[in-house]
Write a structure and sequence with these properties.
This protein is an alpha/beta fold. It has helices at about 30-40, 55-65, 80-90, 110-125, 165-180, 185-190, 210-225; strands at about 5-10, 25, 30, 45-50, 70-75, 100-105, 125-135, 140, 145-150, 155-165, 200. β8 and β9 form a beta hairpin.
Length: about 230
């Protein structure tokens, strides 16, 4: 199925001290270059849409060219929230797109085979997201006191890409806009209208670069991947 990848990297990088994490070096490329290369390698991905800060778009386009990215179809400026940014990216997809894959630009180590697996699951269930079982015991807390311990076997860390059939995702967007809802997770758009989302198991290396130490961890993981 024709799948458009909407890669979102329009955040302010406040936890990186204001340094834009997607433009940091990672291996031989920048973070966003490594991210784009993962989707470039996927047969099911027909195009890549980048959503970024306006001032970062020239650097992203230059990195795409240097990284050999031929599927980059558009770059667009983001909005005030993640949901607004994703919607701006979705508006740039091709008319014949069947599936929309939304991915965090700061997750450069996603594996192409896991992207393809999530695409297959989304084509069956309507939606799918990569994720991994939680390793720790999770507590719910209110006013500094533990209120519950959810069974760990039911809990997953949700990653990206999160992939949806076009019509289903558009319905979720319409519902959110109509009701003034602003979600930080794309699965919530589909959950809100009763849609099914499969949890496609990925792996723990699909980390999100958020703080400075994450870059060092990503360097080690990337190097290990190249050695395998």
């Amino acid at each position: 199925m024709n799948t458009s990848a909407v890669i979102v990297c329009a955040g302010n990088s406040t936890r990186m001290g204001g340094v834009n994490k997607i433009l940091l070096p990672l291996g031989d490329r920048l973070v966003i270059g490594v991210t784009m290369q993962a989707f470039q390698k996927c047969e099911s991905i027909s195009e890549i849409i980048i959503v970024a800060r306006e001032e970062d778009i020239p650097a992203i386009k230059a990195e795409a060219q240097a990284a050999g990215i031929t599927k980059l179809a558009a770059c667009t400026a983001g909005g005030a929230t993640r949901q607004e940014s994703v919607i701006k990216g979705v508006r740039c997809i091709s008319a014949d797109t069947q599936l929309i894959a939304v991915h965090d630009g700061a997750r450069p180590l996603v594996k192409p085979e896991h992207i393809e697996k999530a695409v297959r699951d989304a084509s069956v269930f309507g939606g799918a997201t990569l994720g991994v079982p939680v390793k720790d015991t999770i507590k719910t807390v209110e006013d500094g006191l533990i209120t519950d311990t959810p069974p760990r076997k039911y809990l997953y860390n949700t990653q990206t890409p999160q992939i949806f059939k076009r019509a289903l995702y558009f319905e979720g967007i319409d519902f959110a806009l109509e009701h003034g809802l602003d979600f930080t997770d794309d699965c919530q758009l589909v959950e809100a209208i009763g849609g099914k989302v499969a949890m496609t198991q990925g792996d723990y290396t699909n980390i999100k670069i958020t703080t400075p130490e994450d870059i060092a961890i990503a360097e080690v993981l990337l190097r290990r991947t190249k050695e395998d």
